[in-house]
Amino acid sequence: MLDAAIIAVAAFLAGVLNAVAGGGSFLTFPALVFVGVPPIAANATSTVAVFPGYLSSALGFLPEIKAIDRRELIYFLGLSIAGGIAGAVLLLVTPSELFSFVVPWLLLFATVLFALDHKICDWTRTEAGPTTFGKTAATLAVTTYGGYFNGGLGILLLSLFSGLGFRDINLMNGLKNALSFILSAASVVTFLLAGIVFLKQAAIMMLAATAGGYAGARIARKMPVKLIRMTVIVIGLGMTLAFWLRS
């Protein structure tokens, strides 16, 4: 009961964070490890727990998504499926000891991305678009990262779109949520087929995260943006330190 309460609270707060700023994985993944789920299985279970929220977010930007050229949208979705599966398979073949060593660095990387998201988008913004090969390689790299470790995915996708020449922030957010849902769904199917998802914990967290997302939408209208961002950064750094000490 105590374990169920811990992961439910973590998932609820993750839903709130994802709704107002992102960074929910900083809570769901560590909570699962804390209650005894092995790190690789915890990463997979955390992905299952939070991925439905991407769909509701994408639906909120449906008009912007419909405005994207159909062929380009199919192109991005196809690469997201490929990247999501590739990242999930890469996670499955990663030795547990290696993943435990890499986790603090991934958490730190995701936290730095979140802290510097606006600057990163500015750095990647260019007037000249990349080559088709560069566009494909960059998209595959980002979506494979998302399939392997979900933290910081949103910032990476926004930076990618900015570098590819997108300028409409609402369209970028809509595409970001659509690709996040598709690649996470591909990862989830791979994890489920591999049998590494802790289904009971995932079910509890999905319900709690959904409730947290609904509450977060209301909270977002009242909390200062700077306070929200600082909260995510502090949580990310705290979790990074905790996993470094643990490893």
TrEMBL record:
<feature type="transmembrane region" description="Helical">
    <location>
        <begin position="178"/>
        <end position="199"/>
    </location>
</feature>
<comment type="similarity">
    <text>Belongs to the 4-toluene sulfonate uptake permease (TSUP) (TC 2.A.102) family.</text>
</comment>
<keyword id="KW-0472">Membrane</keyword>
<keyword id="KW-1003">Cell membrane</keyword>
<feature type="transmembrane region" description="Helical">
    <location>
        <begin position="137"/>
        <end position="158"/>
    </location>
</feature>
<dbReference type="InterPro" id="IPR002781">
    <property type="entry name" value="TM_pro_TauE-like"/>
</dbReference>
<feature type="transmembrane region" description="Helical">
    <location>
        <begin position="73"/>
        <end position="92"/>
    </location>
</feature>
<keyword id="KW-0813">Transport</keyword>
<keyword id="KW-1133">Transmembrane helix</keyword>
<dbReference type="Pfam" id="PF01925">
    <property type="entry name" value="TauE"/>
</dbReference>
<protein>
    <recommendedName>
        <fullName>Probable membrane transporter protein</fullName>
    </recommendedName>
</protein>
<dbReference type="InterPro" id="IPR052017">
    <property type="entry name" value="TSUP"/>
</dbReference>
<feature type="transmembrane region" description="Helical">
    <location>
        <begin position="98"/>
        <end position="116"/>
    </location>
</feature>
<feature type="transmembrane region" description="Helical">
    <location>
        <begin position="29"/>
        <end position="52"/>
    </location>
</feature>
<keyword id="KW-0812">Transmembrane</keyword>
<feature type="transmembrane region" description="Helical">
    <location>
        <begin position="227"/>
        <end position="245"/>
    </location>
</feature>
<keyword id="KW-0614">Plasmid</keyword>
